[in-house]
Amino acid sequence: MEVDVYHQVKTSVKRLLNIDLTAYKDEQMRRRLDSWLLRCGASTWEEYNRRLRDDPNELKRFRDYLTINVSEFFRDEERWVTLRSTVLPQLLQTSGPGRSLRVWSAGCSIGPEPYSLAILFQEATPLSKHYLLATDLDRSALEKARQRGPFAASEVRNVTPVQLQKYFEPGGPPYYVRPSLAARVRFCEQNMLTDPFEAGFDLILCRNVIIYFTVEAKTRLYQKFAAALRPGGVLFLGGTEIIPHPQTMGMVNQGICFYTKKA
Amino acid sequence: MTKNRIDELIQQVGELPPMPQAAQKAMALIRDPNSSMAKIARILALDPVMTSLVLRWANSAYYSLAHPIATVDQAVVYLGQNTIQSLVLAASVSSLLNRPVPGYDLGRGDLWKHSVGVAAAARLAISWRRRDQAEEAYHAGLLCDIGKLAFEILLRNMQLDRIEAEDLTFTEIETKYFGVDHGALGAELARRWNLPEELQAAIAHHHHPAEAGEHILLASAVHIGDTILMMMGIGIGKDGLKYRVDPAALEALQADENRVLELYEPVLKAVKEAEVMIGIIK
């Protein structure tokens, strides 16, 4: 896609979907758009743009594609084991006795991440109640999350049979999370780049959400996350996301994917 | 077989500190339904260590009284039976519990705070069903992890297999390596200290209360107490969060999750009190 066309796309996307593409890496986003046009059988952006204006369903598909709604329960299983066996005990110990945890799933998409958290907490810290916030930019994804599903068999492949029985309604696939589990999560619409963050979090998850962001946007976000964590709080990133100089933001790397804010 | 194994283990870890004499006497008195608080006060007054402890506690900044309390009798009236009992019990085992437990990655004071918290929670939890067992529950809660003191020496240099550590509960790991868990070992210590059978049973089964037979209520109260202290992050060590909650405990206590959540605030207060208390005992 030519640069001048991409400029038009940015303007249209901002107007149609209120998504700011300037925060994403140009090169990658252009490649993504090209392959999308190809998949949709549109030869030019102009042609596709007309289709977007006429067909709300196409607009929704496009939005889903841009906001990268790929998600599964307990994505990168091994990291979730570390979260449960190492990070969580540490967070409970340092959060101040008796204080319940404040946890945020940033960029929660259609809900597997916050629901995985709810399952984890239910199992590792039963008989306690934590604050579980889940936010996303994408209203339609949030809508699906709030409706507790449906989730395909492939999305729940890391869920054990026992968990499936306990936390999901019978009769899947597709699967729906039980209302009692869903009630533990608070979903909110939020634009991470422009909206203010809540503060005092013990744990923030932002996994595979900001990989397409520009370096500047990433740095700004990491700083915002660091500010939103309490001292000793932990940021849990995606497998390929690495903070280049965590110490400049008052953070320390703690094994793959985890960053702890210095106390 | 298990009995021999326990003997062997206790031998391996060497001499465990005996229960202090004054403590044993005070505990027996507190458990005796025929003994009045006045009688307990008289006995305490005879023991200079206990007297000074009770008076220091009553006059501590924690209560910030306008007029100092001069006698044990006054202190008993002012502090009330529950507080005096808790204080005496806690003081009597403080020498055991306020030590570092490196085998479980617990620093000095961790096990102490945890135990006092479990005790307070167990007392509240059992009161839902049986108010008359409140003191036993406090007592059992206080001592439930005493077996860890014996185990920890063996655990100090042990590298746990990672996969295993993830799949098994910690009591299962203990059983796998040593043949018994810290509950069973604690119960044996309690037996050697001549503590009553119901306490032995509650200590033995505090991680699996359904197996406590006629003492299920007491074991359940301790189980719930132990669980919420872990959830509070108090006393989490090498064993992390690797325990399971037995649904039978909630059933036995006829409680639900919301009822348990109500325990957090008073238990937290008890833990804070315990921190002050240990400063006075030292």
Describe the structure in your own words.
The complex is a heterodimer of chains A (263) and B (282). Chain A contains ten helices and seven strands. In chain A, strands 3-2-1-4-5-7-6 form a seven-stranded mixed sheet. With 263 residues, chain A is an alpha/beta fold. The longest helix of chain A is centred in the N-terminal third of the chain and has 18 residues, at 77-94. The model of chain A has no long low-confidence stretch (mean pLDDT 89). Chain A folds into two domains: 3-66, no CATH class; 77-261, Rossmann fold (3-Layer(aba) Sandwich), CATH 3.40.50. In chain A, helix 3 (45-54) packs across helix 4 (56-66). Helices cover 44% and strands 14% of the residues of chain A. With 282 residues, chain B is mostly helical. Chain B has two domains: 2-16 and 98-281, Hypothetical protein af1432, CATH 1.10.3210.10; 20-92, no CATH class. Chain B contains 16 helices and no strands. Chain B has helices spanning 2-12, 21-31, 37-46, 48-58, 72-97, 110-127, 134-143, 147-155, 162-167, 170-178, 182-192, 197-204, 216-231, 247-252, 257-261, 264-281. In chain B, helix 4 packs across helix 5 (72-97), helix 6 (110-127) packs across helix 16 and helix 8 (147-155) packs across helix 11. The radius of gyration of chain B is 18 Å and the shape is globular. The mean pLDDT of chain B is 84. Chain A binds chain B through residues 81, 84-86, 88-89, 91-95, 97-98, 124-129, and chain B through 113, 165-166, 224, 227-228, 230-234, 236, 240-242, 245, 257, 260-261, 264-265, 267-268, 271.
